[in-house]
Amino acid sequence: MTVEATTPLDLIGEVYASLDDRLAVGRERLGRPLTLAEKILVNHLDDPAAGGMERGVSYTDLRPDRVAMQDATAQMAWLQFMTAGLAEVAVPTTTHCDHLIQAKEDGRVDLLAALEGNSEVYDFLETVCARYAAGFWKPGSGIIHQVVLEQYAFPGGMMIGTDSHTPNAGGLGMVAIGVGGADAVDVMVGMPWNVRWPGLIGVHLTGELSGWSAPKDVILKVAEILTVKGGTGAIVEYIGPGARSISCTGKATICNMGAEIGATTSLFAHDDAMTRYLKATGREAMADAAEAVAHHLRPDDEVLADPGAYYDRVIELDLSTLGPHINGPHSPDRARPLAALGAEAEAEGWPLEPSAALIGSCTNSSYEDITRVASLARFASENGLQARTELLITPGSEQVRATIERDGLLGDLQAIGATVLANACGPCIGQWSRSDISEGDVNTIVTSYNRNFPKRNDGNPNTLAFVTSPETVMAIALAGTLDFDPVKDSITSPDGRDVRLPEPVGEELPAAGFTPGESGFVAPPEDGSAVEVAVSPQSDRLQLLEAFEPWDGNDLRDLAVLVKAHGKCTTDHISMAGPWLRYRGHLENISGNLFMGAVNAFTGTAGEGKDQLDGQTKPFPEIARHYHQAGQGWVAVGDENYGEGSSREHAAMEPRFRGCCAVVVRSFARIHETNLKKQGVLALTFVDPADYDKVGHDDRVAILDLHRLAPGQTLTMRLSHPDGSSDDVEVSHTMNGEQIEWFTAGSALNLIRRRLQAT
Ligand code: MIC
Ligand code: SF4
Question: Measuring from atom 3 of ligand 2, which residue has the nearest CA?
C-alpha cells in the first residue's frame, strides 16, 4: 500500500461512488430521510444491508477510510499491532510527532532538544511506519489534527484517530472519531471497527458571529449547555444558516472541542467554506469531487426543514447574540460570558493578573485565528502597548507557521513580546518547562486550548486555567487582567492614554496562498519488509508487550479496593501526561503514575491510599505495584463521567497490567469505557448510583455470576465489610457478544491474534 502526504483522489472517488446506492439503502432501512452523520456512517458500513442502526443500542461494523495516530498514543498502538504478525497495515495510516516536544525556549531550540531527547522514540516510530507501510510525519511538521485537516480530511470521509480531538476533521465534513490504540489496531489489521450506533444532537445555528465573538465561543457555550458528559454517545451535527457563515477552520475549532462534551464526534455539512479551504490547501480536485456530490454531503432537506423530528435533541444558538465566553478553571464546561469573569474571579479569590497567556493548540491555530490576534497586536504596537504577561504562541502546523511568518504576522506578535514555540502540543499537554512560578503557587493562565483540568498545563495543581478564543486571550494579555471586557473597557497606555482595542479582524485564508514550509512527511518504502524495528531490551522508554492472561472462568473474589475516586477522575487523573509522556511506550514504567491525580474518596487527598496488605498509606502506583507482585486482584471505583478527556489507553492498560479486574463507576466517558473493555477489564456501572456510597475503605469485593455474563445481563458485586456484614450491589455492563469475548480472551488483542493465527 502507498501512503502519501495527502488522501489520493481515487480513495475519495471510491467513497463518493457508493453514495447513491448506499444512501438509498440507508433511507429504506430506516424508513426516513437521513441526517449527515447517518449518511456518512451508512456509506461506511461493513455490510450496508446488515448491522443494527438503533441509536445508542446496536453495535455496528464500520470501515473507516484512514487511521491517524500521534506519537504519545501511537507507540502503544504500534506495539500492539506488531504482535499481530502482519506484513503491513490494511488501511492508510499515518503517525504524527507532536506531543513529545517540550516548550522551554522557542520553537527552533525546543525542536532540536526534542530530536535529541526523544530520538529513540522517533526512530522507533519512523522505522515501524516504514516497516508496516504507514506514513510518518516528523517532529516539527505540526499537530496531528491540523495536519490531518490540511492534508487528509475530506467531506463525507470517515476516519479514526488515537487522540480524542480527532473530531477536528468534522470542520471539513468528515466523521472523525477519537479512539484508543487497540481500536486503531483493529482497523490497521483489516478488521472492521465496531461501535455503538450513536445518538444525534443537532445544533441549529442562526445569525452570524461578529466583533469579539469567535467560533470558539460557539463550543464554549455548547459545553455550558451540554456539560462535559452531555454529548456522550452522540454525534453533534451543526446545521442552519449560521453554520455556513463560519470558516472551515472555525468549524474545525468547534468540532475539535466537542471532545470536551464527550461527543463521539461533531460535524458540519459540506459548503463553500470547505471548498475554499480545500482549494487554498492545494486540493482543487478534491474540492471538485466533493462539489459533484454536494447534495449527499448535507442532511436531507426534510431533516433541515424539521430537525426536531430527526435529532434526539436540538439546541438553538443565535450567533448574532453570542458574546465572548471564557470557561474554567478545572472544567471546560464551567462557562460564563467574558464580561462576568472579573467579578467572579474577585469573589472566588482567583488571581486577576494572569501569569501567562497561550495561543495555539490543535483547537485554535489557524491562519484566520492568527490574523485576528495579529490585528490586535499591530494595534497594540502602534499604541505603545505590550503584552503584560508571558505570551506564548504554538502554530498548529509547519504550513501555518511558514505562512504566518511570510505574511509578517509572527513579527507582529513578537513585536509585543510573544514567544513562538514549536509546531506542537507543548503547554497544552504539560510539555511546558516553566520557571516563573514554583510548585503550589496559585496563579491563573488563559489559553485558546480545549482542556483545563488541574495540573494539565504545568503540573501545578494551583494553576487555574481558563479556555477561551485566541482573540480573548490576546485582549487579556494586553490588559494584564482577567477583569477586562474589550467591548467596553480600555487599557491605560504607558503614556497615560486610555486605549480601547478595536474589534479583531482576520482573513479566512491567506491571499497569497499557503506556503508549505519545510516538508515533514516521510513516505514508507515500497517494500518495508527488511526494515528493522528496534526496541532495545534496556530501554526505559519502549518495552515489547506481553499478552495479558485470559480469564480463568471463575467469579472474581477477594478483591481489594485500590482506589475509590471522588468527583472528577479524568484520564489525566488516572495516567498523567506532562513528564510521564516519556514512558508512553513502556507499560511497566508508565504504570508509575497510576491514579496519581485521583482524589481518594475516603480521605480527600489526591494520589494516595491505604495498602490493604500492610496497612500503610502509600502513593496509589506503589500500592498497585505491591498488589501486582503479591497477586492481589483489585478494583477501582469511580464517580460520574469516569475517564473523561483523553483517548490514552494507558489509563486502561496500566490498571490491567497491575492486576485490576474491574472498574465500577457511576458513569463512564465513551473512549475510556471502550479502552477498558479492549484490555480485558470489566467496565461496570452501578445500576443505582447511590450504591457508590456503600463501598468502604477496607471492603473486600467479589464480582459474581460471571458464568452468566451475557449482553444486557447485570452482575452482582458483593461488598464484604470489615465488620462481617455485606452488601450485594447490582452492576451493569455494555458488552456485546464480541466484547465479552475480549474479556474472556484476556484482551481484544489476544482475540485478534487467535483469529489471525487461525486463518
Ligand atoms: C489530550 O489532549 O489530552 C491528548 C494528550 O492529546 C490526548 C492523547 C494522549 O493522552 O496522548 C487526547 O486528547 O486523546
Ligand atoms: Fe495536542 Fe492539546 Fe490538541 Fe491534545 S488538545 S492534540 S495535547 S494540542
Answer: 362
- Statement: residue 15 has pLDDT above 80: yes
CA distance 458 to 706: 43
Tell me the three cell numbers of residue 485: 471586557
Residue among 648, 650, 653 to mutate when testing ligand 1 (max atoms within 8 A of CB): 648
Q: Which residues are near ligand 2 (CB < 6 Å)?
A: 99, 143, 163, 165, 361-362, 425, 428-429, 449-450
Residue 541 reports pLDDT greater than 90: yes
Q: Ligand 1: residues whose CB is within 6 Å?
A: 72-73, 99, 163-165, 178, 429, 451, 577, 645-648
Listed in sequence order, the residues at least 6 apart from 274 whose beta carbon sits closer than 8 Å to its beta carbon are 155, 172, 173, 248, 251, 268, 287, 290
Specify burial of residue 232 (Cβ count, 10 A radius: 0-12, 13-18, 19+).
buried
How sure is the predictor about 759, in pLDDT bands with cuts at 50, 70 and 90? confident
Q: Which atom of ligand 1 is nearest to the CA of 575?
A: 10
Which pLDDT score is estimated for 1? 72
- Look at phi and psi of residue 508 and say left if phi exceeds 0, alpha if psi is from -120 to 50, else beta: alpha
Q: What is the largest CA-CA distance in the chain?
A: 79
| pTM metric for this prediction | 0.97
Among protein residues, the one with the nearest Cα to ligand 1's atom 3 is 646
The catalytic residue positions are 98-99, 163, 451, 646, 648
% pLDDT > 70, the chain: 100
Q: What is the pLDDT of residues 337-385, one digit of tens each?
A: 999 999 999 999 999 999 999 999 999 999 999 999 999 999 999 999 9
pLDDT of 150 reads 98
To the nearest 10 degrees (0 to 180), the angle between helices 119-131 and 71-82 is 50
Residue of the nearest CA to atom 7 in ligand 1? 646
Closest by CA position to 104, among listed 434, 438, 458, 436: 434
Q: What is the DSSP letter of 151?
A: I
The H or E element that residue 348 is part of is helix 341-348
Give the separation between CA 469 and CA 361, rounded to whole angstroms: 11
HSE, CB side, 13 Å, CA atoms: give it for residue 406.
15
Helix or strand holding residue 344 (H, E): helix 341-348
State the distance from the centre of ligand 2 to the C-alpha of 143, rounded, in angstroms. Answer: 7
Give the whole-angstrom CA distance, residue 660 versus residue 675.
Answer: 14
